[in-house]
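User: Structure please.
Assistant: Input sequence and predicted structure:
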Amino acid sequence: MALSLDDDGRSDGPTGVELTRLRSAELFAVFGDERESEAAHESAREALVHLHLPLVEHCARRFRNRGEPLEDLVQVGTIGLIKSIDRFDSERGVEFSTYATPTIIGEIKRYFRDKGWAIRVPRRLQELRMQIGTASAELTQSLGRSPTPRELAEAIGCSVEEIVEGIESSNAYSTLSLDASDDGDDGTATMLDAIGVDDEGLEHVEIRESIKPLLDKLAPREKKILLLRFFKNMTQSQIAAEIGVSQMHVSRLLNRTLEQLRTSLEESS
């Protein structure tokens, strides 16, 4: 059944939305049931991909007119959709579309980032460049100055020579004039028009910094559960197998820990 989406990525009417949700829930029940055969799992997975392709197309259209064919962007976004299906935990209580959208968009953005290299640079150097950027920002904040290559190497876990190579590889990244058009509908929009927009992540900085000392006070097991759940995207079932307890116990520990963090955060504010 083909579904059309409006500007918010939703289908035309409540009937279509409800049918999609019900069908999605049925397929995820089969996909996550260990008693089902491998063929049933693959069939459910393929059906989930086709069911949510309109979401991929909606996300891809946000990046049209940027020099890449829409069909290619849909293919790249589908990779993000498949990753989301494989990682989704229906017990989380969130809509799959809400969970999948950031992964789909992230995959498309990564595609543009990889295409932006003027000279083809090995994947390891591209990834190292991103690691250097992240580590440099964190060390600059903690040290109160720019880190040395050796300090960066120790933080990332590589050699000083690799750090230097990663920094030099940045020169291979292509640049774009601020006056260059993005080939919008009217042909007048430029990169300069995009400068100065609010960074949505900034509003969460204060919260993250407030939570750090609270996380340090958690027991090792509770801290590990949070790490596995929210940083490694493991399901509650996978966490239960990892730490050797029941899934129900993981759920109780997770809820209790989150409530404890919420209460401590409110008391400290």
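The radius of gyration is 22 Å.
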